[in-house]
């Protein structure tokens, strides 16, 4: 232990390293992450983080694992109801809310150079959990066997929904909405409108164009 360094319990040191790694990534990007920098910022010897993380990729994999876990929890959070279509909309809104409220985690999940999954298989457990939530929601809507003969059709629909949500969030995270000078009402309302349109494309709703009368059923109200 170097002069001035305070001995930490093992669990505290591990958590401190992870929190500092997240801060480094948030402030300077993944490329700035190193175990030496983590050690310097939390005030321990440069060898101390190696007690818990054999390499930079190991601590990055843990940060990513937690991000995926948070994402999966966010998608599971909306309560299930008897209306599978409304539940799918709630899942979509949970996706958008997570992406905007947890930008670092979302960027790590979808925008970063991840460690080798074969070397860090636990890193992607949350990703598979999140995808399973989406597939389950679609299976309920269509009354399909998501793990049997309907597996491929469900995956096709899941890819469509996922890509639609990702595109929506990507647009919202830029200055594009300001650039095209949308009204405040449109900026506020278009995410829900876009999700409702996804329902139309899936053939599970009849949401009208703005100004038209709403249908009596499956309008996501």
From TrEMBL:
The keyword DNA-binding applies. Gene3D superfamilies: Tetracycline Repressor, domain 2. Residues 34-53 bind DNA. It comes from the Bacteria. Keywords: DNA-binding, Transcription, Transcription regulation. GO terms for molecular function: DNA-binding transcription factor activity; transcription cis-regulatory region binding. SUPFAM superfamilies: Homeodomain-like, Tetracyclin repressor-like, C-terminal domain. Pfam families: TetR_C_33 (PF13305), TetR_N (PF00440). Residues 11-71 form the HTH tetR-type domain. This is TetR/AcrR family transcriptional regulator. The lineage of its organism: Bacteria, Pseudomonadati, Pseudomonadota, Alphaproteobacteria, Sphingomonadales.
């Amino acid at each position: 232990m170097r002069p001035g360094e305070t001995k930490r319990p093992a669990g505290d040191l591990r958590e401190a390293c992870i929190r500092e790694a997240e801060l480094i990534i948030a402030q300077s990007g993944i490329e700035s992450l190193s175990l030496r920098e983590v050690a310097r910022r939390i005030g321990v010897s440069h060898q101390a983080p190696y007690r818990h993380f054999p390499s930079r990729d190991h601590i990055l994999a843990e940060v990513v694992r937690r991000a995926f876990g948070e994402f999966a929890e966010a998608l599971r959070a909306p309560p299930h109801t008897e209306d599978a279509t409304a539940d799918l909309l709630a899942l979509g809104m949970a996706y958008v809310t997570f992406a905007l409220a947890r930008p670092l985690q979302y960027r790590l999940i979808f925008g970063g150079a991840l460690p080798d999954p074969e070397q860090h298989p636990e890193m992607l457990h949350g990703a598979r959990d999140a995808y399973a939530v989406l597939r389950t929601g679609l299976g309920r809507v269509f009354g399909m066997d998501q793990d049997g003969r309907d597996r491929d059709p469900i995956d096709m629909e899941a890819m469509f929904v996922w890509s639609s949500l990702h595109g929506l969030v990507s647009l919202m995270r830029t200055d594009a909405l300001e650039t095209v000078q949308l009204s405040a009402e449109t900026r506020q309302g278009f995410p829900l409108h876009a999700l409702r349109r996804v329902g139309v494309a899936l053939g599970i709703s009849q949401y009208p164009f703005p100004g038209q009368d709403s249908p009596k059923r499956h309008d996501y109200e």
